[in-house]
Amino acid sequence: MTFAVGSELTSRLEGFRAVQRLAYECAETVAAQLRPGVTEREAARMQREWLRERGVRDWLHLPFAWFGDRTAFTDFRLPFQFFPTHRALEPGMPFILDMAPVHRGFTADVGYSGCLGSSPLHDRMLADLQAHRELILREVRERRPLREIYESVDRLMVRQGYANRHRAYPFGVIAHKVGTVREQRWSPTFFGFGAQALKGLLGDALHGHREGWSPLWSPHAFSDHPPRAGLWAVEPHLGFRGTGVKFEELLVITDSRDPEQSAFWLDDDLPHVRRWGP
Amino acid sequence: MGAGVSLKGARERRVHTGGIELCVAELGDPAHPTVVLIHGYPDSKEVWAEVAERLADRFHVVLYDVRGHGRSSAPKPLRGGFTLEKLTDDFLAVADAVSPDRPVHLVGHDWGSVQSWEFVTVQRTEGRIASFTSISGPSLDHFGHWLKKRLTRPTPRRVAQFLGQGARSWYVYLLQIPVLPELAWRGPLGKRWPSMVRRAEGLPRDGYPTASLPEDAAHGAWLYRDNVRSRLSRPRTDAYAQVPVQLITPTRDDFLSERLFDDLSGWVPELTRRTLPAKHWVPRTRPDQVSTWIADFTLAQEKAISTPGGRASVTPETTRATRATRATRATRATRRKAMSQKPYTERFGGQLVLVTGAASGIGRATAFAFAEAGARIVAVDRDAEGAERTAELSRLIGAPDAWAEVVDVSDAEAMEKLAVRVAAEYGVVDILINNAGIGLSGPFLKTTPQEWKDVLDVNLWGVIHGCRLFGRQMAERGQGGHIVNIASAAAYQPSKSLPAYSTSKAAVLMLSECLRAELSQQDIGVSAICPGFVHTNITSTARFAGVDEAEQQRLRERSTRWYGLRNYPPERVAEAVLRATLRNEAVVPVTPEARGAQLLSRFAPGVLRRIARLEPPL
């Protein structure tokens, strides 16, 4: 999807920004309620119910919650392992909440990392994510092929001493496109993924296949193309010996020639960005 | 008396209790936490000389001769004078004399540990003991239950454990014979014992044992006669430890099986385990490690006491309760991880580990694995930023301390300076990992002398310098150690595309084998690790001989992609390093291709030669 100029653009971005804020608000609220003994399933349900109460009817994907070494996807081999389990939260455990609600037709996909109690390692890893946020924006503005940017992120992670854990996602993606979804009375989900949003992604994949681009930003050859205009949910995910941290937020890419306008993060007022400070 | 070793600078005093005069020695400032060291059989307090000296700067160290030993007087009559109840009286008298207001930290070796178990499990010492470090001496009550369990519910494994410990206890049976042991000790055995035990146990030649040995040993026989039979046949059922216990187990002890302590966590609510690859007399053969562990444990307990509400008193009920909640809370996965991690933590906790090439790949992963086990890390690399990063993350995942050192391992002078600096600032290295290496590929006829020199300088000379300098420090200290050299499967798999690299690694493998033979005398183990294709950045920094820059870059990218597809993580090599160190393995191939090539090199070297002719798919 490309954007028309002017007020239409702003109003649409406002819609995305609103749902992203809503999702992050949900993550912060649920994270504050997590106590020892809460299971992943309970945490996922808390997110779902909180968002339902605020008018979310459709999803790109239902909320996920990962606790402990599951934040680093330790020993993940099958896609089913991503779904919430009965693992209970313990003091000192890291956790990640990940949700993709659709609100008034706009999709967001956010990831929130936290830790129950203080952990200097977790703090360090969260701080190290900042370099990735800057690197991705810089290289997208340079219009480098997505696959090369992926490899740059990979190299930075190795230099930092971490393992690339977004590699564990389907197709090893670091990001994927999101768009608007038509609001319908019935919005079914399949294996946690919303039918409407999946349809949109499939349509993009089909178009992209003909035109030589892909809505999935992966390490594979099909991502060997310059950044494509649209909204991308970017999710670099660091793993280190049983601890994983990530952020996920929307990156706006446009066809503008002005580097500042060609790519920017949709919102800079998010929990992880506030944490890093100005 | 007391010829040979002596306790330098010790203040002596006499403590009277129940008609006995005990000889008590004190070192260090009495304002510091008090550590009471209790010797075993047949020993006197001087057995602790080396350990006491190392503890004296931070602790008030108290040693005493057990009744009937050294310069303490013996009870009359001897029979019935050595019961655990009377030994408890002695301990309480000493504790009250040297530290009337504060509880003391107990450390026991051999029979000193056996009697200390009694002290920490009976009610009347409550409030007098803060912690207990047990070395090579079980509680007779726990031992009694251990035997009973193995006899009343025999399984093949339990029977084997029973017989194993039964065979190690031969001397206990001999000591039950009347009169003869006394005659032997006062006669020929007393004279020969020092040289016998020195040879069998590899003890240093420092004038120990003292001249009182024959009398000590003769009196001490009553320790066994007064206690062993009665306690083993009717062990107490309430022998729960009331204080935190640190158990140090020498893994090559000729007198005690490691299995003896398997059930201990049921008796001790707060148990810290340590293992040491050494024989029975660790206070004499490993004083550095033993005193470090005593100091760390004691200080940790002092801290727990001084923090308000730090430690509640522990009863058997709370023990069971905490264990139950812990069991339900810990998930299966975390428990599995903790279990697999345990032997490493017990063995490497607090040790000093130096890793070369620690800024990336296998070196970095190895540093992290040792850090997780609680070792102190020295991360050495040419890349300052990478080494600093390794040290920083090591501290975050469990290393009590970690430092980065920027050194090129091929630079002899720089390595010598490093060795001096490390010894002065961090201590003698316990475990050395020679990992730094560079890649060089290309046909022999196109490899320049400079390229040969570069690869040999790092891959071979780096290892030589490491072994030479740090191996010497280990040997001179005489308290064991371990060296791991990272060779490669290329050390035994010839290849037309890696002549220089393979040559350097084959040399490292042979060097490791020779060094292993030489250093085995000094209890220093040497292992060579031979990984196959492991996904590290060696491919992106490797040189390809005889091609231009563009081709160089292309080959690097291609090989990096190939290794990425193979995707064998360096963490698994790191695990092999820890395992090899723990078990003192000689040559360890890692990855299936490395194991396969090793098999072929033995049984079908012709196949390897044919593989060597293949063109790499780059």
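qc> The domain at 340-612 of chain B is CATH 3.40.50.720 (Rossmann fold).
qc> done
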